[in-house]
Amino acid sequence: MSNRALIISGGGAKGAWGVGTVKALKEQGLNYNTLIGTSTGSLMGPLILGDRMAELEDAYTSVTSDDIFNKNPFKKNGDIKTFAAAMRLIGGKNSLGETEPLKALIKKFVDITLYNQLVNGDQLYGATVVSMTKGNTQVKTINGNQYTDRNNLPFDKAKTESYNDLVNWIWASSNQPLFMSLFTDEHGESYVDGGLRDFVTIKYVLEHKLADEIDVVIHNTPDLIDSNYKPGGILSILMRTVDILLTDVAANDIENAVLNVQLDKEVKVNFYYMDKEQIALVPNSLVFEKDKMRQLLDSGYNSIKNRTCRIDNCRITPDGHILPDTV
């Protein structure tokens, strides 16, 4: 049996589409030895590996912005609360919003029983974060300490050592910089959303030789960015700048992975994308509305079941080439 990995990108409320997509993939009989999630993908990961799809579906169709923010930087229409943002800037705050309720929400759905299941199981889970202190990407993993790479070397030591660590790493991975809370550990190192540097963490799976086939769920279109943006105020330009930077990160993820990793055999990669109509449901992915998230989840599920989802397939060869795959 081949080893199969699932990589899930960030995307905030768009994660509801990913839940529907994964639900349909699992109904096709696909199971995963490894799951690496970024931002909303990091929150989805433990529930997927724990076969708690009903709970995951509930999480992504019941949550509202009040369940995420105690200081919400956005109006209901997705615009920035300009006065509140100005006050936080003047007050020297390190973000325009705060997300303490999100941590409680993570604990609700990723409970201690699920944590123990993952620790004692044989699957690998990882949450991708970026260290604002060091400027690098880190994948915080949890497993039964049974995993080594094919050279019998242990994985890096960036593991979650306790349930509270797991909650904190998921929280850190889910907090987009500027708009959400900053997580600072006991050593004074600060962390944010892994999507700041890795939209999808393909390199980690390849360099540890974790899979023969990788499914990548991307909460965006292949174009990744709206091409009809009209400049607004300073904060609007700021949000657009973040979008452009993240788009560049996403576009380079697979190329960088291939250039920097030497494989010992061919790996197949399948990319699953949203379409523009689905994206239009949540123009601001940090605004959480239950009805729209329900629509997104159903849309993701049906697009896989009805084979209408955009899927790009490729093969990565040991000599570093990316070849199209028609299967």
Summarize the topology.
Blueprint lengths: L3 E5 L6 H13 L6 E5 L1 H10 L3 H10 L19 H9 L9 H10 L2 H9 L3 E8 L5 E6 L20 H12 L8 E2 L5 E4 L8 H6 L5 E6 L15 H27 L6 E7 L2 H5 L9 H16 L4 E7 L5 E3 L3
Parallel strand pairs: 1-2, 1-7, 2-3, 7-8
Antiparallel strand pairs: 3-4, 3-6, 5-6, 8-9, 9-10
Helix pairs in contact: 1-2, 1-3, 1-11, 2-7, 3-11, 5-7
Short overview:
The protein is α/β, with parallel strands linked by helices and 327 residues long. The chain has helices at residues 15-27, 40-49, 53-62, 82-90, 100-109, 112-120, 163-174, 202-207, 234-260, 276-280, 290-305, and strands at residues 4-8, 34-38, 124-131, 137-142, 183-184, 190-193, 213-218, 267-273, 310-316, 322-324.
Describe the protein in words.
With about 325 residues, the chain is of the alpha/beta class. About 40% of the residues lie in helices and about 15% in strands. Strands 1, 2, 3, 4, 5, 6, 7, 8, 9 and 10 form a ten-stranded mixed sheet that branches. A hairpin with a 5-residue loop joins β9 (about 310-315) and β10. α1 runs antiparallel to α3 and α5 crosses α7. The chain is globular, with a radius of gyration of 19 Å. The two termini are about 20 Å apart. Mean pLDDT is about 85; it is low at about 145-160.
